[in-house]
Amino acid sequence: MPGFLLDQTSMVTCMHAGQAKATAPFPRVTLNRQAVVTQLAAHMVSACAFNVSGAPSPCVNVMWTSVATRVKAGGAAVLLVDSQATCVPNGTGVLVAPSQVRVRGM
Question: Rounded to an integer, what is the distance from CA 41 to the centroid of its chain?
């Protein structure tokens, strides 16, 4: 199913409202002057408030499990608004909101 491509300003949040940012977007491909994000770019989570029985167990990073199958940048699959991911280490999902709504991919 086609979805909008993610760029470096797209909002990715864990289920506990922690913000995830791509650490290394691909700068040679841009969308509205923002670098596109590929599966290889690590997403680090900050401000995750998750805790188990009073002991903090925050999300640390995001592992993408489904990505674009037909669109690549620099040989790596790009991320789409409907790409699936889990947070490490607790395995919860993420919420994705694109910042651009012009370019779609599959």
Answer: 9
Query: CA–CA separation, 50 vs 59, rounded Å?
Result: 7
Query: Length of the chain, please?
Result: 106
Range of the domain at 35: 3-105
Q: Which CATH number belongs to the domain containing residue 92 in this structure?
A: 2.60.200
Residues 28-75: pLDDT tens digits? 999 999 999 999 999 999 999 888 777 788 999 999 999 999 999 999
Query: Could you tell me the two tokens for 89?
Result: 């280490």
Q: Count CB neighbours of 56 within 10 A.
A: 9
Please tell me the distance from the alpha carbon of residue 10 to that of residue 89, in angstroms, as a whole number: 22
CB 2 within 8 A of CB 105: yes
∠ CA 99-16-64, rounded to 5°: 55
